[in-house]
Protein 1
Amino acid sequence: MMVSLRALAPSLNRITVAGAVGAIFHVGHGDCDLVDGSAVEFSRMILNQFDIDGEVICCEGPKDHAPAFERREKVGTGKGVALEFVVDPVDGTTAASKGRKDSISALACAPKGCFQVLPDDGYYFKVATDFHSIGKLSLDMSTEEIVQTVAKAKNISLEKFTVVMLDRDRHCEILKSLRHLGVKVILIPDGDIVGAIVAATSGSGVDLLIGAGAGPEATIAATAVKCLGGMMLVRVWNPDGDVARMERLRQAGVDVFKTYNEHELAKGDELVFVASGVTKGELLDGVRLSCDGATVSSICMRLPSGTVEKSETTLQFKKHPIYSQLILR
């Protein structure tokens, strides 16, 4: 009997657990490629154990020439349900390489044909928030208009309003606008997937994610945001007028002038988001190594149920058929 995505969902954290464990052995060593390469190797080994006809349609990494799954890489045994994945083996690779917090391994999964591919080629402008602002925002609005609209929808004064944004030079003008408004700004070094999740979570203390980031993370985050009942808008960001990039994106099936929402990035109501902590962060604890294994914290969100589960996995490397090969070789 073919196993459904709904039945598989609780076990998909095995993939991100493997990515987190692979990454942890290179945390703090200063080499991003080692972090990514090990995470990809470990997660690929686990993913290929699943009885699925799987395909990784997009993976973070190519933009920076980092180790990654191949685009349209076939995964699984090929014998089960047809599924597609968008994978970020380590969201926050630089943070992990420097031993900093808030690094995770993450993926989104759905039946084939549900995800909008946003290639890891340049940046995409994103906003994410909770359900209060659904249908009220546009990326044609200015930064000030976006903030004021969300604040009004949530009935929050600007003095109590909090924005999370990647700490990047490309965001200088946005930051100036936010400072002028008087809102609180949390600048994060990496990891806008977590930023989108906390912004979409009511009562988290964060009201809005804004800024430009990579494409695969946008689809992964949109899956989580949709599971949480929040909203996300994403559009190609091309301030330098890169004509060649726009043509590459068109060839990859991206409408370069369209604003995608969470329902267009992650279609349907059978969706799974999974993440595991690499280093300690706001969303998840980091991997805790022991003398013969590791403990890993994970989160799984899924539709149609809207279930959000946090879990803790304890591994014993010597007894595990995969980890014994990868770690003890």
Note: Residues 32-47 form the longest helix (16 residues).
Protein 2
Amino acid sequence: MSQPTKSHGRLSISATAKPRELISDTPDLQGAWTARVITLVPQTFPGVLGASLTGKALEQGLWQLQPIDLRQFGEGRHRNVDDTPAGGGAGMVLRADVMGDAIEHAMQGTPRARDDWPLVYLSPRGKPFDQAMARRFSRTSGLTLICGRFEGLDQRVIDHYEIEEVSLGDFVLTGGEIAAQALIDATVRLLPGVLGNEASAEEESFSDGLLEHPQFTKPAIWRGHAIPEVLLSGHHARIAEWRQAQSEELTRHRRPDLWAAHEKDDPDG
């Protein structure tokens, strides 16, 4: 199979103008990991995902991005997507019928097994996103993300489709688009061929449950601060030991939660 051209990568980030079959809307890059994003602001994509390594990988067809405009499924002349909360209260809630139609459209042609194509709602009350989850997502064929707005999404939709709720952290954003881009970035960089150097992903923070050790480069001395002598020794075993010790020390002091989990999982702990 010939490698997709750059133009195919650019075409794969186009949002739909009206509901129609996904296969006719964007070219299907066979074998490429795919992110479909249901959003009220499709123009915000690819955003930062179009830059740096993720953007290059997008152009090369190593993955593809398909924003889906939620507004096209809205009701009435004004394409309304939300309504007041049942039982009263401030703000607006995304309607079940509107989001249901959007999900049905977005899941067309995806594997039936949710393990191979997760359906995820970016929500402050979701399970915290971490490196292990990014690794799990990177091993799928793709995923569909729902970007929340206003006061959130009608619970019936979450229950009906058994949607996985994921949180970027203990804070609230105006919408799920920033969180979606962060999740996609963390996942895409783990796909084969994206980083170029596969060892980089293996040595980063969280990859082995610890924070990454400090990094240094030239010049050897900067404003009176020298690179640790062990890193200039050429002794690979000593360097590895130093880096491991630094990772453990940083994790112990900065992330006691990670350190506790590391000690629990370490058979020699």
Note: The chain has two domains: 6-188, 204-265.
